[in-house]
Design a protein that fits this description.
Layout (H helix, E strand, L loop, with lengths): L2 E5 L2 H13 L4 E5 L7 H17 L4 E3 L4 H7 L11 H21 L3 E4 L9 H15 L3 E2 L8 H11 L14
Helix pairs in contact: 1-2, 1-6, 4-5
The structure holds iron/sulfur cluster.
The site of iron/sulfur cluster has 8 residues, from α4.
Length: 174
């Protein structure tokens, strides 16, 4: 089944990309992260994620950087904590756009690594994905990125590949 994997950055996606590539899964990585600021940081993470995909020979797609729209959608939620209401909107926006893109391009499902980091609420990501999946009519695949040695492998790959590892999620420092 051909599917798209929404990735936020190289550190969160490296172990998942490696596992899927070794299993010879039919997937492409899509980078849709208009939440990342400033633009220079966005570019840095995008280049690094592309580098990981090249290592594993996985197609990499970059969608538009519409930070203006992201700001409009999250207006009034600037002071929400990480895992709060702003993150609900952010996850939903990104997943829905990627699901729409997947539908246009003939992919059969969408997955993501948005809940891989230990700072994230995986249930919150899954709720946003379910909502978007129902609206778009695109199945969402839950992919394991934390358990079964995945966190340890993530740490190993960050070191081995000398990945740029940012200190904040995307919209603002912790
Ligand atoms: S903390 Fe991360 S997930 Fe939450 S709104 Fe900001 S960029 Fe999006």
């Amino acid at each position: 089944m051909a599917f798209l994997l929404l990735s936020c950055c190289a550190p969160c996606s490296c172990a998942v990309i490696e596992k899927l590539a070794l299993a010879k899964e039919d997937f492409s990585v899509v980078f849709y992260n208009p939440n990342i600021r400033p633009l220079s940081e966005y570019q840095k993470r995008c280049v690094e994620n592309k580098r990981v995909c090249e290592i594993y020979n996985v197609p990499f797609i970059e969608l538009e950087y519409d930070n203006e729209r992201w700001c409009e959608l999250t207006k009034g939620l600037e002071n929400e904590p990480e895992r709060g209401k702003r993150c609900d909107v952010c996850f939903y926006m990104r997943l829905k756009r990627v699901m729409q893109y997947a539908k246009e391009q003939g992919f059969e499902a969408v997955a993501s690594v948005l809940g891989v980091s230990r700072y994230k609420d995986l249930a919150q990501v899954n709720r946003a994905a379910e909502k978007a999946a129902q609206e778009v009519g695109m199945p969402y695949l839950e992919i394991e990125g934390r358990k079964g040695g995945m966190q340890e492998r993530r740490g190993e790959l960050i070191k081995k590949l000398e990945l740029y590892n940012q200190t904040y999620c995307g919209c603002k420092p912790r």
